[in-house]
Structures are given as C-alpha cells and as structure tokens.
Design brief:
- This protein has two domains: about 80 residues, Orthogonal Bundle (Arc Repressor Mutant, subunit A); about 180 residues, Glucose-6-phosphate isomerase like protein, domain 1 (Rossmann fold, 3-Layer(aba) Sandwich).
- Helix content is about 60%, strand content about 5%.
- It contains 14 helices and five strands.
- β3, α12 and β4 form a beta-alpha-beta unit.
- α8 runs parallel beside α13 and α9 packs across α13.
- Pfam families: HTH_6, SIS.
Length: about 300
C-alpha cells in the first residue's frame, strides 16, 4: 500500500505533535499509549471534539483523554485541542505551497512529470495487492443489500462517478441527493447487510469521517478509498483501497482513483448475471426521455 503521497505540513508543528504521540505510544501507560496510537490516525478528531465525544469515538474514558493531553505537555485538553487546530490550519496551506512551486516551471518539464506520475499512479492500481482488494470489494458490493457512496468536495466527483456507474448496472446502489445533511440521512436509513464506501484524502473531510464513524457504530461493512492506511476512515474498515496520488499538481491527482473505480465496476460487471439487463433498461429509458442525442442532432 502506498503511503508516500501524504501531504506534510511545511510547518513542523503537526509533525512535532505526531512525533510526541509516537513516543507516548512506546512509553506511556497502556491506556494512554493505546489512545496515542489511535490519535496518530485521527488528528482531526483531537482538534474538533470535546473530551466526552472524543472518548466515545475512541472507546476510551474521559480521564484517558485528559491524561493524553497532559502527557503531551498541556495543562488540560482545551490547550491541546487548540494546538491540533492550529497545526491542521497550518497544514491546510500545503495545496497553496504546491501551487506556488508550479510558478515558472517550464511547460515541457511539467508535462513530462505529470505524464510519468500518471503512469506510475495507474500502474499502482493493478499491482498484486490492489487487485486482490478490488476482488474482495467487488464481492462485498455485489452481496450488499444497499451500497452507499460518500464523498464531498474534490471527492464528490469520485463518489458521484461510482454511484452513477454502479447505479446504472446494479439496483442496490443508492444515489445521493447532494443536499446538505443528506449524508446523515443516508446513514440513518442504512441497515445491517449494507455497505458504505467513504472516499476522502488528505485533507480529510469531516463529513466523510463522521459518516465512517456512524457506519462503524451501526455495524455496517465499510470499503474505504483513501490515501493512507493511517487515514481516519481506514481505521475499522473491512477493506482499504489506496490509489497513488503523486504528481506536481496543486491538488492530489485523481487519475488513479478514477481508474480504481472503473476497475471495481468492471470487476462487478464481469461477475453479474443481471447487470447487463439492468443497464440496458436504464439506457433505453434515457433514450426514450431524450437524454441522448446524435452527433448531428440540434436541440
């Protein structure tokens, strides 16, 4: 699994906090050490939760949360939370830093680097381990009562693509309404036997992390698509798919992520008896409604 594509803050503050958590994982009393290990993959949760809600999310008692903050050198949890908020705020500038590095870059060199990165990223989708995980994910989705695809902001395009393509061929894919709060509405309707596919990359979206947490609480199966095995939505997921996202672009490259989704849907289609019929019915309905036109048609 690729872990080279995580964005690292230009400021050292987030790295410093992570280094201190790593040290506590080795040296602190067992309960604090275990919570430090959890916190390494969930810095957003430390930044934006109260002691009580954080204790619930991490399945620890409130005293352990306070002890971790004190072990990190803070007088209490509030200054610890502010430190993580500031570290994440500084880390959010990494897109800007990447964009700034493009200034003055010769087009030929930029295109060559993008080309080479895209090839490597796509090749990673078809390595032995990722193929094995794609096979497992296809089986899980085919057997699901309902499949819910969650992604916001830059990941919304990926979530929509998987939901739309999957919905064309498989009746168990649930389409999102794209309205504010619809993620929570979907999770409220989900039942055992359903599969949730959360998609988020650094910087990890709070809404998607919440959906992942709700899915875990409700005992749903989870296929996470993310950029690191330590990502918040990787924790507790049944399957974790990690496309490479390398490249000089300001935003992480989504080329491999789209390829991974295409490979996932193609694998499902290759195994399904009724998918072709369902897709034909879907296409015929669109044609009847006038959704498609020929090349020479005029509206």
């Amino acid at each position: 699994m690729n872990t080279e594509n995580r964005f690292i803050a230009r400021s050292s503050e987030l790295d410093t906090l992570r280094a201190r958590l790593l040290e506590l994982r080795k040296t602190a009393p067992p309960k604090v050490a275990s919570f430090a290990d959890w916190a390494l993959g969930h810095p957003q949760e430390l930044a934006f939760n109260s002691v009580r809600s954080l204790a619930t999310l991490a399945n620890v008692n409130a005293n352990t949360v306070v002890r971790l903050a004190q072990s990190l050198g803070y007088d209490g949890f509030d200054p610890c939370r502010r430190a993580f908020q500031e570290a994440l705020r500084q880390n959010s500038s990494s897109y800007t830093n990447r964009a700034a590095k493009l200034k003055g870059e010769p087009s030929e060199r930029l295109f060559d680097e993008m080309h080479q990165s895209a090839v490597r990223n796509i090749e990673g989708v078809f390595d032995v381990e990722t193929r094995r995980q794609l096979e497992r994910a296809a089986t899980m989705l085919l057997e699901a009562r309902q499949a819910y695809i969650i992604g916001v902001r830059s990941c919304f395009s990926l979530a929509h693509y998987l939901s739309y393509c999957g919905g064309m061929a498989f009746k168990n894919f649930v389409r999102r309404s794209s309205e504010p709060g619809d993620i929570y509405d979907l999770m409220a309707r989900a039942q055992p036997g359903d599969v949730v596919v959360p998609i988020t990359f650094s910087h990890y979206s709070t809404e998607t992390i919440r959906a992942h947490a709700l899915a875990r609480q409700r005992g749903l199966k989870i296929i996470a698509i993310t950029d690191d095995i330590r990502a918040p939505i990787a924790d507790g997921s049944d399957i974790v798919l990690i496309p490479r996202m390398d490249g000089p672009q300001a935003m992480p490259s989504l080329v491999a992520a789209f390829t991974l989704i295409e490979a996932l849907v193609a694998t499902m289609l290759s195994r399904s008896e009724g998918a072709t019929t369902h897709m034909r019915e879907f296409e015929d309905t669109l044609l009847e409604c006038g959704a498609y036109v020929g090349r020479d048609a005029r509206l």
